[in-house]
Amino acid sequence: DNSLIIITSDHGEEFREHGSIGHGTLYDEVIKIPLIIKMPKKIKVVNRRIGKNLIQGNIDIAPTILDILNIDIPDEFQGNSVLPIIKGLKKNISPYQASEKLTAWDRFYQIAVRDMSYKYIYTTFFDIKNLKNFRINNEKFELYDLVNDKNEKYNLVLSKDKIKLYYQGLVDNFIFTNVLVNVDVPKKIEIEREVKERLRSLGYIK
After folding, report:
1. GO terms for molecular function, please (predicted)?
2. Residue 200 CB partners (closer than 8 Å, separation 6+)
3. Contact present, 146 and 117 (Cβ < 8 Å)
């Protein structure tokens, strides 16, 4: 009765819905994942199904846990607690949600911003020697109507110029206000043998 249990995932998988296999894109088959929360009995639950009309992401899980445990949420946390939604005190925590992809091996940066109506995906290649030098060439823009095109098949960016500018503004705001959290990383990390074997079986290490 006193347990807090959260079931979620890090990502989904694409099986050529948009031409790729794996989880290297920001389409819904990759970034739309389950989030199931079993609340402690002491928490009064008003909204039991909040995902249909709520924009939230994994970045909101940590502040939600702290909020449920009545622990102050650090200022540097970028997510928002969904506890007020569960209690019926708020209808939403953010007008939009952002997802990012930045990998050195294919050298491109992607960010997707979405609300209940549209998803906008911005892609640019970057200079591996200067990660701050975004937008050096080959920008790509995608805009999808999530109400009428749930599978994200029809890119409307050329026909919805004003809407594209609005979402590009959200992208710009996110890029230039997103705070990088400094974390002290030890030069050498000891990994238990069992953990190492699991990572090897999944192909993350050799």
Report:
1. arylsulfatase activity; glucuronate-2-sulfatase activity
2. 206
3. yes
Residue with tokens 């088959």, as numbered in its chain: 29
Asked if the structure places residue 92 within a domain, the reply is no
Residue 40 near residue 1, CB atoms below 8 Å: yes
The C-alpha atoms of residue 18 and residue 62 are separated, in whole angstroms, by: 31
CATH code, 135 = 3.30.1120.10
Give the DSSP letter of residue 95: S
The set of long-range contacts for 160-163, using a CB threshold of 8 Å and a minimum separation of 24, is: 163/118
170 in a structural domain = yes
Per-residue pLDDT of the chain (206 residues; tens, 9 = 90+): 788 898 888 787 777 777 677 777 888 888 888 888 888 888 777 766 666 656 677 888 899 999 989 999 998 888 888 888 888 777 666 778 888 877 655 667 788 998 888 999 998 876 555 555 555 557 889 999 999 998 989 999 999 989 999 999 988 888 777 755 555 666 677 788 888 888 888 777 77
| Of 5, 30, 6, residue with least CA distance to 17 | 30
Rg for the chain, CA atoms, rounded: 19
Characterize the bridge pairing of strands 5-8 and 108-114. Answer: unpaired
How far, in Å, CA of 166 to CA of 120, rounded?
10
pTM for this structure? 0.74
